[in-house]
Amino acid sequence: MKKKIMPLIAGNWKMNGDAGSFLEVEVIKDRLAAQEINADVAICPPATLLHRISVALHESLAKTGAQNCHAQANGAYTGDISVPMISEAGGSYVIVGHSERRGAYNESDSDVRAKAVAALEGGIIPIVCCGESLDIRESGKAIDVVITQIINSCPDFSAEQSIVVAYEPIWAIGTGKTASVADVDEMHNAIRNALTKRFGDPGTTIKILYGGSVKPSNAKELLSVENVNGALVGGASLKADDFLGIIEAA
Predict the structure, then answer these.
(1) 53 and 85 in contact (C-beta within 8 Å)?
(2) Is 70 a catalytic residue?
(3) CATH code for the part of the protein at 8-15+45-249
(4) Considering 24, 100, 107, 168, which one is annotated as catalytic?
(5) DSSP letter string over 138-190?
(6) What distance in Å separates the CA atoms of residue 72 and residue 182, rounded to the nearest whole number?
(7) Helices (H), ranges, 200-239
(8) Are 47 and 81 in contact (CB under 8 A)?
(9) Which of 4, 86, 157, 233 could hold 66 in an S-S bridge, CB 3.0 to 4.6 Å?
(10) Mean pLDDT throughout 153-157?
(11) pTM here?
(12) Res. 176: pLDDT tops 80
């Protein structure tokens, strides 16, 4: 019998958001309270807003998370944010290994794994990102590259801990392009098989999110694909109506 996995719809605000964004947060909070939702929900704003949004969403159905963390709990790491800081600010999740971090900041699989380990040790759920470029996709090596990223980036975890994996085809982030349903199905099945092989039974229930230009208009189709257990949403998470449209599609 197939195990039921509660979907996770996580919004990655990236370097966007200000005080005015709280109007959107309040709309999300009120709408979630007014209807039955069949998904876990998280908002990952910039670090400057994490505590304020965590307070605003207190006792709501939505959690918060950070967009990155350092592998160390403290130290001379100017500009970084640690897992204890995320926890103190009310965060429950942290995104690690996003393609923009891997690309622009040269983060390796081992860097991502170290951050995920730190998250688990601090009681935070890591959302471990993986994905391929257009060149890799067109070379026919997409699955091999993504699975290697996952195996090298995901840490071991105990029965009391959990991790989330997010597949994000880099060529479909912020471009308006979306991988075909067949592409998503093939990749997510490959990821599930790899997670099950790596972790055994716990690997069968790890949430695998899709993260490539998810919008209200395509969310239902994407979220209906086997082994798509939610979405990592970029631009559409900045507007309450769009984000709620995706949540409602889960």
Answers:
(1) no
(2) no
(3) 3.20.20.70
(4) 168
(5) HHT-HHHHHHHHHHHHPPP--TT---EEEE--GGGSSSS----HHHHHHHHHH
(6) 40
(7) 216-223
(8) yes
(9) 86
(10) 97
(11) 0.96
(12) no
